[in-house]
Design brief:
208 residues, mainly alpha, 10 helices, globular
């Protein structure tokens, strides 16, 4: 809870990825109040009883949202998707507005732009998700989160494995490779987003 609040204040991108990781963690614990308390709350010896209760209730609020939105098995909470939508709107604005050039966003994005179609196709894969329906920033965040999951999972499928495994392995390697152009864009966008929230950047400066 405190970690989430701190990340929300300091870096919107890290906040979104943190919540996505937490969603999967809660699912791994089967959304069970008993397992969630034993695994995510009880080990915090630095917290008193009242603080532990507040933390537990926060986790259970997330569980209730996952159930309400029908995402007990998969998917991301609307809250994070709305934030990504806001970031994508800002991304599109920065590509057109003078402040985007002033903040160096156009240069950061230039390296990623040619890779976006392939990135979206790799993320969509064989799922029902259409590549053309994925926004630029949704593609970036999904790539970052997939890379995080790949690192946690470890070794990918061998090259001489079944065709589907080789295909999945190729997609994983591509996502890993493209991170060097994805990460700087998301980092720059998150920094501008935070600066605008704090009133340090005028997003409409010099616009006619």
């Amino acid at each position: 809870m405190l970690t989430a609040k701190q990340k929300r204040r300091e870096n919107i991108a890290e906040y979104i990825l943190y919540l996505w990781q937490l969603e999967d963690m809660l699912r791994a614990l089967e959304l069970s109040p008993e397992k969630i308390y034993a695994t995510l709350v009880e080990p915090h010896e630095e917290l008193d009883a009242e603080q532990k209760q507040a933390l537990f209730f926060w986790y259970m609020d997330m569980v209730n949202l996952l159930k309400t939105e029908g995402k007990e098995k998969a998917g991301h909470l609307d809250h994070t998707l709305h934030l990504i939508g806001d970031l994508n709107d800002l991304h599109l604005h920065l590509l057109k507005a003078p402040v985007g050039r002033e903040q160096g966003y156009d240069k950061a994005f230039a390296a990623l732009a040619p890779e976006l179609p392939k990135l979206k196709a790799s993320i969509a894969g064989d799922s029902e998700m259409a590549a053309e329906g994925i926004s630029d920033m949704e593609a970036c965040f999904r790539a970052l989160y997939l890379a995080m999951l790949y690192r946690l999972r470890g070794t990918a499928a061998p090259e001489d494995g079944p065709a589907e495994e080789r295909k999945a392995d190729a997609a994983e390697r591509y996502v890993r490779d493209v991170l060097e152009v994805v990460s700087p864009v998301v980092a720059r966008l998150a920094a501008i987003y935070g600066a605008a929230e704090r009133g340090e950047v005028d997003l409409y400066k010099d616009m006619a």
